[in-house]
Amino acid sequence: MSECILKENERIDDLDVNGFRIIQNPFCFCFGMDAVLLANFVKVSPKAKCIDIGTGTGVIPLISTAKNRGSHWTGLEVQSNMVDMASRSVELNDSGGRISIVEGDVRNVREIFKPCSFKVVTSNPPYMKQPAGLQSSSDTINISRAEIMASLEDVVSAASYLLPTRGTFAMVHRPSRLPEIMEVLLKYRLEPKRLQLVQPTRDKEANLVLIECVKEAGKELRLLPTLIVYKENGEYTEELLSYYR
User: Hey, which of 46, 81, 82, 152 has its CA 20 to 30 A from 138?
Assistant: First the structure.
């Protein structure tokens, strides 16, 4: 598909994975490092049926498909303009047979999908409670950053509904909300199994946390080595670069 599929203010970015590309609009919401880290952090077998809740422009399904992680991905997104961009990115990469973009509200997930429909659920949800933080003039950006359309509990509840016993849920969020995150995960029978903190540099506190859970599993949590993003000279660390290769 050619660049003529682009609409006003849109661009095509290279995902640097097997030639996959993505359509983005800087006046809406562009994916960040957190989505890339989550796509690589979660354990996904090549045969797993997966869904990404609040998929935005579809970056997690696209990266995962490019790396042959999962047999089929569904991206659930409530915002029509993001659904449109994500759907065109799927076409751009000729991935219609392995990725489906569905427009829908996570709060209505029981009306959209049957229970236990997916082996893996991922989510890069809004980090901020509402109202909180700086407000953007873009409604799309505000919805992506703050819990306007979906709360943390809405996302976790939906994930639990969509997973069978022993299914996997993985999420990226802010460490400052870890107490609440753990409480909500356990409420919906999602047992944390792997946790990794992400620090900008060695001398700064963590600003992201990656969590992987298994539904209705035993209690045992592995705390992985902290991921450092930048070296002292400002360059990316080798571990960080490995996620982008």
Answer: 152
